[in-house]
Amino acid sequence: MMVEVENAATKLPVSVIVVNYNAGPFLTECVHSAYSSASEILVVDNASTDLSLELCAQRFPDEAKLKIIRNAANLGFAAACNIGTRGATKPYILFLNPDCALSADSLNHMVRVLEANPAAGMAGGLLMNADGTEQEGGRRAVPTPWRSFVRAFGLYRFDHYWPSVFYDFHLHKQALPPRPVEVEAISGALMLVRREALEDVGLWDEGYFLHCEDLDWCMRFQQKGWKILFVPGAPVLHHKGACSRSRPIFVEWHKHKGMMRFYRKFFRHQYPGIVMWLVGGGVWLRFGAVASLHAIRDAARRLGLR
How far is 251 from 269, CA to CA, in rounded Å? Predict the structure, then answer.
């Protein structure tokens, strides 16, 4: 069967980079979904301790286009993406989370969209939940400090009255567009990037360990004049959080730390110091609340209360 797919499919000029950390069987499903269409697949493993690499190697024992790069430590998402980028050889690079599974024609469709839009530097597809609904984050506006404030306190509910003021940066609740559209940001779980644009913008910022590095890259692509496209006709199943459930507080720490780096890097000169101070206070208050909730839930599980 694998030989039949290999002969029948025309390989796209795409290098797929999958950063893995304890993704379990999801990794094999992810690689399989890209297997028949991509020219090469690079799995960059951040020192996983589960059987995800072994399961993948068993599924594709003699696959020449699958390369596994084993890091000695968990270097973070951005650093692992950069390692994969340096080993990639094709004119298009797809950054794909190991808990994602491409639909049959999704990658082909995204490549066609980029080829038809030379001013576009990257494209993202339609991230789907297991129940078939659109997942948040696949298309979004940049979460500026004000937009984040609006989101955190639920003020986006007033967007029907003052849409320019109370704007929710998550766009998945809006009607799905009939064709590819330009957006401010897409998700790092699924990013097809033109190599020419990548070389112009530069690699991922390794100052982020986990979360917000994709927003950083989207901002930098826009600053360099590259458009970012959302492709609704490219559905991708995303088992969101599959790789982070075992260490929720660790993930939340780096998420909030990444938010602070993002705000300071791009908005500190646009907002008064007192506003940035309030934003920072809000970020860490939120982390404290979320971390406490996870700690309580973990304690309840240990005590057999849940």
Answer: 28
3-state secondary structure 147-208: HHHHHHCCHHHHCCCCCCCCCCCECCCCCCCCCCEECCECCCCEEEEEHHHHHHHCCCCCCC
219: left (phi over 0), alpha (psi -120 to 50) or beta: alpha
Q: Give mean pLDDT, residues 4-8.
A: 36
Number of residues that make up the chain: 306
pLDDT at 286: 73
User: CA–CA separation, 56 vs 106, rounded Å?
Assistant: 22
Q: CA 264 to CA 249: how far, in whole Å?
A: 23
Q: Provide the pairing of β-strand 66-70 with 92-96.
A: unpaired
C-alpha to C-alpha distance for 262 and 51, rounded to whole angstroms: 34
User: Which residues have a Cβ under 8 Å from the Cβ of 64 and sit 6 or more positions away?
Assistant: none
The answer to whether the CB of 34 falls within 8 A of the CB of 96 is: yes
- Residue whose structure tokens are 């240990």: 302
pLDDT, average across residues 175-192? 96
pTM comes to: 0.86
What tokens were used for 57?
Answer: 């190697």
Q: Which of 155-159, 189-193, 258-262, 265-269 has the highest mean pLDDT?
A: 189-193
Of 190, 8, 27, the residue nearest 93 (C-alpha): 190
Nearest residue to 214 via CA among 106, 148, 134, 139? 139
What is the Cα 36 distance to its own chain's centre? 22
> Of 98, 102, 99, nearest to 38 (Cα)?
102
